[in-house]
Amino acid sequence: MTNVIQLNVPPRLSLQDARLGALLASFALDRRTGDDVFWLKENAEVLNILECTDTVVSQGALSVHQGYYDTVERRLSFFPQYYRFLLSITLDLEDLGMQGTKGAQLVDWAVEQDLAQAELSDLQRMEARRLMARRGRDPLPQDTGLEDRVRAFISRAQTFTLPNKKAAYELTHAVFYLSEYGRRDPRLDRGARTSLHYAGLLAYLDQNADLLAEICVAMAYAGETAPQLWTDWLARETHLFKVTCDDHVGVHDDYHEFLVCHWHQSVAGFPAFHAAIAPGRMRFDRSDRRSAPLREMSECMFRMEEARSGDWARMRGLMEARLSPEAMSVVSHAEEDDLFEAFFHGFARVDLVGASA
């Protein structure tokens, strides 16, 4: 008689499973402690990207957050000022596959405590509403004009012809919330779509991959096609990131830019976080090989005072004579954009000359 012994061997992790597990473990366990608000920020960001890109994450990878999940009620009751981070992490863990229903309980508690009433910013109110709607609650049922106010802000395209990173990031997040991170049509008007394009031109001229990646994701969620110049440059920047694995490496790094660049790659149809990710404490550094002409352009225009013009055809030669060759090379690519001349008119601020007393 032959004895047949059946071995229940767990399947080997794929390279992508291993990468995602290492990434989550590094942010959850190795970079910061759970009592640090920056721990909340980092983990909320990486989980949000995985959830909104429908990335499949194994139970083993999610298990690094089991300790957080088991104690999240205590954290929320003691740190209600961080409720948006805490809700975001909890909801994303559940929606990625972690077993439990705490998200609905926490949302109910946050509504009962009127936590969203403590927000001064319309954008933060939008985020609170979007988070709690994921479990069927509206924390601000009386605020029927919130979406209209946010739409009025993002539809003022001239705002985004001027360097203002805070406004640009608020623009992208407004689109994220209006679109439910790509799950519905955000119904942007022409002004808001132009705003995204102008903000993208500024980000490209600044060679700011962090902001440009968010803008390209927002454009995708709005059904817009980002210029290939931007997406090709982002792909190069994404592949040039340096990931350092060391127990003693510093974490004041470019992690956010790393995350959103890979988010953009995922939205563009490539695997999420296909990078040199290894177990342990990680540091993320962007490439130093870049020239950002935006500051040079601004300084040049400011020195011209009343002599500056919003006509790019007139100003191009003057700018070329004053900008470094590296900066002018970036500008030369940007000016091929159909909206560049209209964007430059606003950037020149000619309509504001003489406004001071």
Detail the poorly predicted runs.
1-13
Question: What is the number of independent domains?
Answer: 3
Number of strand segments: 2
- In whole angstroms, the N-to-C terminal distance is 103 Å
**How are the strands ordered across the major sheet?**
1-2
Strand residue percentage? under 5%
Shape: globular
Structural class of the secondary structure composition? mainly alpha
Polypeptide structure, described:
The structure is a single chain. This protein has 3 domains: 15-139, no CATH class; 145-287, no CATH class; 291-349, no CATH class. It contains 18 helices and 2 strands. It starts with 14 loop residues before the first helix and ends in a 9-residue tail after the last helix. It has 357 residues and is mostly helical. The chain has a two-stranded antiparallel sheet.
Brief account:
With 357 residues, the chain is mostly helical. Helices cover 57% and strands 2% of the residues. Mean pLDDT is 93; it is low at 1-13.
